[in-house]
Amino acid sequence: MDSALVVGGTRFIGRHLVSDLVENGYDVTIFNRGNHENPFEGDESVRRIEGDRKDDGALRRAKAAAEPDAVFDCVAYQPKDVVSATEIFADVDAYVYISSGAAYGAEEIPKREGVTELCPCSDDQLTDDSSESYGPRKAEGDRVVFDAATRGVNAMSVRPTIVYGPYDYTERLDYWLNRVENYDRVVVPGDGTNIWHRAYVEDVASAMRVVAEEGEAGEAYNVGDRRVLTLEETVRTIADAMGTDVEVVHAGERELAAAGLSPDDFVLYREYPHVLDTNKLAALGWDSTPIEEAMARTVEEHRRSDRDGSEHDPGRDAEESVLSILDTL
């Protein structure tokens, strides 16, 4: 394969995917509405076609113009989007759909492809666009991929867990980056050992390419860092990447409640561990970036950006109250 069509391609995962494909010799066309700045403007190796992925006619025109060997679907948020794409791109060498670790409906450690139950998706959830229905919709998209494969479509899906890295518009990790950079003491809920598996964005991009090249039709592949960090380890890894020292202060539910907080007020906290098994993807020849290197790149871009994770901020005044309470114990 040497030509690719990326549906999306300018914000976060898609942006890194385009870069990965170009670096690996692909002729790349991106297809999107143009609502966001195109980081590849002026790059002759990346062609852009404007259109709405929900317009089947526009998708067909993009296919005719790009003549792709592989199609990467970064912005399929409703199952009907995947239905259309698997029909329109039925004859390409590979169609890769970005699903999510949120598609899993059972709490197991680790979550495994083909073993761990997926979320059901009700009729109401099929067309919903709320965060509550995100996992069910992604799971139903997976089922569309599986069904398409039975009809001879070379369709596959990748299931990343929480994605982080440069240009992350969700700013989930930026909250912790901001705290470490600006404060000597960082409040971490619980004992710091809670785990929410994450995936470095460049590795998600390479995973999509590897799955297109080496994956099997009708299969899903988990994506996540090969080394899983606890929340406290994450904070300390950030500090190391920033060349600073921080004191990690553990706060239990009682101390947090006294300041009007709960553990769930802290982004990337999860009471029950969320871990994906990535051995199936690794068997295709994929590997993840070492954690320290991934975090160093993330910190470098964070410092150039204006992101601070403030929308996830539980409030520094409340945190200071927690610290005062703990100092008196």
Automatic annotation (TrEMBL):
Sequence ranges of Basic and acidic residues compositional bias: 298-319
Gene3D superfamilies referenced in this protein's UniProt entry, alphabetically: NAD(P)-binding Rossmann-like Domain (3.40.50.720)
Taxonomic superkingdom: Archaea
Pfam families recorded: Epimerase
Start and end residues of each NAD-dependent epimerase/dehydratase domain: 4-84, 91-224
Region (Disordered): 298-329
Coiled-coil intervals, chain numbering: none
Homology family: Belongs to the NAD(P)-dependent epimerase/dehydratase family.
PANTHER family: DTDP-D-GLUCOSE 4,6-DEHYDRATASE-RELATED
Protein name, entry field: NAD-dependent epimerase/dehydratase family protein
